[in-house]
Amino acid sequence: AQTVTQSQPEMSVQEAETVTLSCTYDTSENNYYLFWYKQPPSRQMILVIRQEAYKQQNATENRFSVNFQKAAKSFSLKISDSQLGDTAMYFCAFMKRGSRLTFGEGTQLTVNP
Amino acid sequence: DTEVTQTPKHLVMGMTNKKSLKCEQHMGHRAMYWYKQKAKKPPELMFVYSYEKLSINESVPSRFSPECPNSSLLNLHLHALQPEDSALYLCASSQDSLFWTSGLQETQYFGPGTRLLVL
Protein backbone atom coordinates (compact mmCIF):
# COMPACT_ATOMS: atom_id res chain seq x y z
CA ALA A 1 0.00 0.00 0.00
CA GLN A 2 1.12 3.50 -0.76
CA THR A 3 1.64 6.01 2.03
CA VAL A 4 2.05 9.76 1.86
CA THR A 5 3.69 11.68 4.70
CA GLN A 6 3.50 15.39 5.32
CA SER A 7 5.71 15.99 8.32
CA GLN A 8 4.71 19.61 8.91
CA PRO A 9 1.17 19.87 10.37
CA GLU A 10 1.39 23.66 10.45
CA MET A 11 3.54 26.32 8.85
CA SER A 12 3.48 30.07 8.61
CA VAL A 13 5.12 32.56 6.29
CA GLN A 14 5.19 36.31 5.87
CA GLU A 15 3.48 37.81 2.88
CA ALA A 16 5.76 38.05 -0.18
CA GLU A 17 8.20 35.48 1.19
CA THR A 18 8.87 31.97 -0.06
CA VAL A 19 7.81 28.80 1.73
CA THR A 20 8.39 25.12 1.04
CA LEU A 21 6.01 22.34 2.10
CA SER A 22 7.45 18.86 2.30
CA CYS A 23 5.94 15.56 1.21
CA THR A 24 7.40 12.09 1.06
CA TYR A 25 5.77 8.93 -0.18
CA ASP A 26 6.40 5.25 -0.22
CA THR A 27 5.78 3.09 -3.26
CA SER A 28 7.34 0.30 -5.25
CA GLU A 29 5.69 1.54 -8.43
CA ASN A 30 7.57 3.22 -11.24
CA ASN A 31 4.67 4.93 -13.00
CA TYR A 32 2.52 7.18 -10.88
CA TYR A 33 1.31 10.73 -10.41
CA LEU A 34 1.73 13.20 -7.62
CA PHE A 35 -0.48 16.15 -6.79
CA TRP A 36 -0.72 19.10 -4.50
CA TYR A 37 -4.24 20.20 -3.62
CA LYS A 38 -5.11 23.35 -1.74
CA GLN A 39 -8.16 23.63 0.53
CA PRO A 40 -8.84 27.18 1.76
CA PRO A 41 -11.33 27.96 4.53
CA SER A 42 -14.11 27.84 1.92
CA ARG A 43 -13.33 24.08 1.88
CA GLN A 44 -13.17 23.70 -1.91
CA MET A 45 -10.35 21.33 -2.85
CA ILE A 46 -8.37 23.02 -5.61
CA LEU A 47 -5.69 21.38 -7.73
CA VAL A 48 -2.47 23.34 -7.43
CA ILE A 49 0.00 21.30 -9.42
CA ARG A 50 0.54 17.85 -10.87
CA GLN A 51 3.68 15.84 -11.60
CA GLU A 52 4.01 12.70 -13.70
CA ALA A 53 6.69 10.42 -12.29
CA TYR A 54 8.15 9.65 -15.72
CA LYS A 55 8.92 13.32 -16.30
CA GLN A 56 12.22 14.49 -14.90
CA GLN A 57 11.39 18.15 -15.28
CA ASN A 58 9.78 19.68 -12.21
CA ALA A 59 6.26 21.02 -12.74
CA THR A 60 5.61 24.74 -12.38
CA GLU A 61 2.40 26.73 -12.21
CA ASN A 62 2.99 30.46 -11.83
CA ARG A 63 4.17 31.00 -8.21
CA PHE A 64 3.95 27.30 -7.41
CA SER A 65 6.70 24.83 -8.25
CA VAL A 66 7.69 21.40 -7.08
CA ASN A 67 10.97 19.72 -6.31
CA PHE A 68 10.44 16.13 -7.38
CA GLN A 69 13.15 13.74 -6.26
CA LYS A 70 12.08 10.32 -7.51
CA ALA A 71 14.90 8.33 -5.96
CA ALA A 72 14.33 9.94 -2.60
CA LYS A 73 10.54 9.70 -3.02
CA SER A 74 10.17 13.34 -2.17
CA PHE A 75 7.74 15.86 -3.64
CA SER A 76 7.98 19.29 -2.04
CA LEU A 77 5.93 22.35 -2.99
CA LYS A 78 7.51 25.79 -3.15
CA ILE A 79 5.29 28.85 -3.02
CA SER A 80 7.01 32.04 -4.09
CA ASP A 81 5.83 35.57 -3.27
CA SER A 82 3.28 34.23 -0.79
CA GLN A 83 -0.09 35.95 -0.77
CA LEU A 84 -2.78 36.12 1.89
CA GLY A 85 -5.01 34.04 -0.38
CA ASP A 86 -2.52 31.20 -0.16
CA THR A 87 -3.65 30.56 3.42
CA ALA A 88 -5.10 27.06 3.25
CA MET A 89 -4.64 23.41 4.08
CA TYR A 90 -2.34 21.82 1.52
CA PHE A 91 -2.65 18.11 0.77
CA CYS A 92 -0.04 16.10 -1.06
CA ALA A 93 -1.52 13.13 -2.92
CA PHE A 94 -0.25 10.07 -4.76
CA MET A 95 -1.95 8.03 -7.45
CA LYS A 96 -0.72 5.03 -9.35
CA ARG A 97 -2.37 3.47 -12.37
CA GLY A 98 -5.32 1.35 -11.38
CA SER A 99 -5.57 2.68 -7.86
CA ARG A 100 -7.08 5.42 -5.81
CA LEU A 101 -5.88 8.83 -4.73
CA THR A 102 -3.92 8.59 -1.48
CA PHE A 103 -3.70 11.79 0.53
CA GLY A 104 -1.25 12.91 3.16
CA GLU A 105 -2.54 14.33 6.44
CA GLY A 106 -2.13 17.89 5.21
CA THR A 107 -0.14 21.00 6.14
CA GLN A 108 -1.99 24.07 7.35
CA LEU A 109 -0.26 27.09 5.87
CA THR A 110 -0.91 30.56 7.24
CA VAL A 111 0.33 33.62 5.37
CA ASN A 112 0.76 36.57 7.70
CA PRO A 113 0.47 40.19 6.58
CA ASP B 1 -13.50 24.48 -17.74
CA THR B 2 -12.88 22.30 -14.70
CA GLU B 3 -16.05 23.02 -12.80
CA VAL B 4 -17.85 20.54 -10.63
CA THR B 5 -20.95 21.86 -8.88
CA GLN B 6 -22.60 20.56 -5.74
CA THR B 7 -25.92 21.34 -4.13
CA PRO B 8 -26.86 22.19 -1.49
CA LYS B 9 -23.92 24.01 0.07
CA HIS B 10 -25.19 23.36 3.56
CA LEU B 11 -27.63 20.79 4.88
CA VAL B 12 -29.03 20.22 8.35
CA MET B 13 -31.07 17.09 8.87
CA GLY B 14 -32.52 15.02 11.64
CA MET B 15 -31.73 11.37 12.07
CA THR B 16 -35.10 10.33 10.64
CA ASN B 17 -34.95 12.54 7.57
CA LYS B 18 -34.30 11.56 3.98
CA LYS B 19 -32.26 13.97 1.89
CA SER B 20 -30.11 13.93 -1.24
CA LEU B 21 -26.86 15.55 -2.27
CA LYS B 22 -26.35 16.41 -5.91
CA CYS B 23 -23.19 16.71 -7.97
CA GLU B 24 -22.92 17.78 -11.60
CA GLN B 25 -20.14 18.16 -14.12
CA HIS B 26 -20.18 19.11 -17.78
CA MET B 27 -16.59 18.31 -18.68
CA GLY B 28 -17.40 15.02 -20.37
CA HIS B 29 -15.79 13.12 -17.52
CA ARG B 30 -16.75 9.48 -17.21
CA ALA B 31 -15.67 8.85 -13.63
CA MET B 32 -17.23 10.44 -10.56
CA TYR B 33 -16.43 10.09 -6.88
CA TRP B 34 -17.92 10.75 -3.46
CA TYR B 35 -15.63 11.58 -0.57
CA LYS B 36 -16.32 12.27 3.09
CA GLN B 37 -14.08 14.72 4.91
CA LYS B 38 -13.89 15.44 8.62
CA ALA B 39 -12.37 18.67 9.89
CA LYS B 40 -8.60 18.91 9.54
CA LYS B 41 -8.43 15.48 7.91
CA PRO B 42 -7.88 14.37 4.31
CA PRO B 43 -10.88 13.22 2.26
CA GLU B 44 -11.90 9.58 2.54
CA LEU B 45 -13.14 7.82 -0.55
CA MET B 46 -16.71 6.48 -0.34
CA PHE B 47 -17.83 5.54 -3.85
CA VAL B 48 -16.53 5.53 -7.41
CA TYR B 49 -18.68 5.47 -10.51
CA SER B 50 -17.09 4.71 -13.84
CA TYR B 51 -19.13 4.92 -17.02
CA GLU B 52 -22.25 5.25 -14.85
CA LYS B 53 -21.60 1.98 -13.08
CA LEU B 54 -20.62 1.66 -9.45
CA SER B 55 -17.09 0.32 -9.44
CA ILE B 56 -16.05 0.92 -5.85
CA ASN B 57 -17.97 0.97 -2.57
CA GLU B 58 -15.58 1.47 0.34
CA SER B 59 -17.76 -0.51 2.75
CA VAL B 60 -19.97 2.50 3.27
CA PRO B 61 -23.05 1.97 5.50
CA SER B 62 -26.28 1.41 3.60
CA ARG B 63 -27.75 4.63 4.96
CA PHE B 64 -25.69 6.24 2.18
CA SER B 65 -27.00 5.30 -1.24
CA PRO B 66 -25.28 6.61 -4.39
CA GLU B 67 -26.92 7.00 -7.75
CA CYS B 68 -25.57 7.97 -11.15
CA PRO B 69 -28.54 8.80 -13.45
CA ASN B 70 -26.28 9.83 -16.31
CA SER B 71 -22.66 10.60 -17.04
CA SER B 72 -22.95 14.20 -15.82
CA LEU B 73 -24.88 13.69 -12.62
CA LEU B 74 -24.14 11.97 -9.33
CA ASN B 75 -26.44 11.82 -6.34
CA LEU B 76 -25.96 10.68 -2.78
CA HIS B 77 -29.17 9.70 -1.01
CA LEU B 78 -29.12 9.96 2.77
CA HIS B 79 -31.46 8.18 5.16
CA ALA B 80 -31.41 7.60 8.90
CA LEU B 81 -28.02 9.20 9.35
CA GLN B 82 -26.16 9.41 12.63
CA PRO B 83 -24.57 12.50 14.20
CA GLU B 84 -21.12 11.07 13.40
CA ASP B 85 -22.01 11.33 9.71
CA SER B 86 -21.75 15.10 10.01
CA ALA B 87 -18.94 16.11 7.67
CA LEU B 88 -18.07 17.82 4.41
CA TYR B 89 -19.10 15.67 1.45
CA LEU B 90 -17.02 16.24 -1.62
CA CYS B 91 -17.76 15.17 -5.14
CA ALA B 92 -15.02 14.82 -7.74
CA SER B 93 -14.77 13.82 -11.37
CA SER B 94 -12.05 12.70 -13.71
CA GLN B 95 -11.89 12.06 -17.42
CA ASP B 96 -11.69 8.35 -16.87
CA SER B 97 -11.19 6.00 -14.00
CA LEU B 98 -7.93 4.26 -13.34
CA PHE B 99 -9.95 1.36 -12.08
CA TRP B 100 -10.50 0.53 -15.72
CA THR B 101 -6.72 0.52 -16.14
CA SER B 102 -7.19 2.48 -19.29
CA GLY B 103 -3.68 3.81 -19.10
CA LEU B 104 -4.93 7.37 -18.96
CA GLN B 105 -3.53 9.55 -16.24
CA GLU B 106 -6.56 11.05 -14.58
CA THR B 107 -6.64 14.11 -12.43
CA GLN B 108 -9.59 14.46 -10.11
CA TYR B 109 -11.36 17.80 -9.97
CA PHE B 110 -13.40 18.53 -6.87
CA GLY B 111 -16.61 20.37 -6.26
CA PRO B 112 -17.07 22.89 -3.43
CA GLY B 113 -18.66 20.32 -1.15
CA THR B 114 -21.81 20.04 0.92
CA ARG B 115 -21.42 20.68 4.62
CA LEU B 116 -23.76 18.25 6.36
CA LEU B 117 -24.91 18.48 9.97
CA VAL B 118 -26.93 15.64 11.43
CA LEU B 119 -28.83 16.47 14.59
Structure description:
The complex is a heterodimer of chains A (113) and B (119). With 113 residues, chain A is mainly β. Chain A has strands at residues 3-5, 10-14, 19-21, 24-26, 32-39, 46-52, 60-61, 64-69, 74-79, 88-96, 102-103, 107-112. In chain A, the strands form three sheets. In chain A, strands 2, 5, 6, 10, 11 and 12 form a six-stranded mixed beta sheet that branches. In chain A, strands 3-9-8-7 form a four-stranded antiparallel beta sheet, with no helix packed on it. In chain A, a hairpin with a 4-residue loop joins strand 8 and strand 9 (74-79). The termini of chain A are far apart. Chain B is an all-beta fold. Chain B is 0% helix and 54% strand. In chain B, strands 2, 4, 5, 6, 9, 10 and 11 form a seven-stranded mixed beta sheet that branches. In chain B, strand 4 (31-37) and strand 5 form a beta hairpin. The model of chain B is unreliable at 100-105 (pLDDT under 50). The N and C termini of chain B lie far apart (37 Å). The A-B interface holds A 33, 35, 37, 42-47, 50, 52, 89, 91, 95-101, 103-106, 108 and B 2, 37, 40-43, 45, 48, 56, 88, 90, 92, 98-99, 101, 103, 105-113, 115.
Main interface by residue count: A-B, 25 and 26 residues
- Please compute the radius of gyration of chain A using only Cα atoms: 13 Å
What percent of the residues of chain A sit in helical stretches (DSSP H or I)?
Answer: under 10%
Helix-strand category of chain A:
mainly beta
> What fraction of the residues of chain B are assigned to beta strands by DSSP?
over 45%
Quaternary structure annotation: heterodimer
| End-to-end C-alpha gap of chain B | 37 Å
Would you list the SSEs of chain A in sequence order as H and E? EEEEEEEEEEEE
End-to-end C-alpha gap of chain A = 41 Å
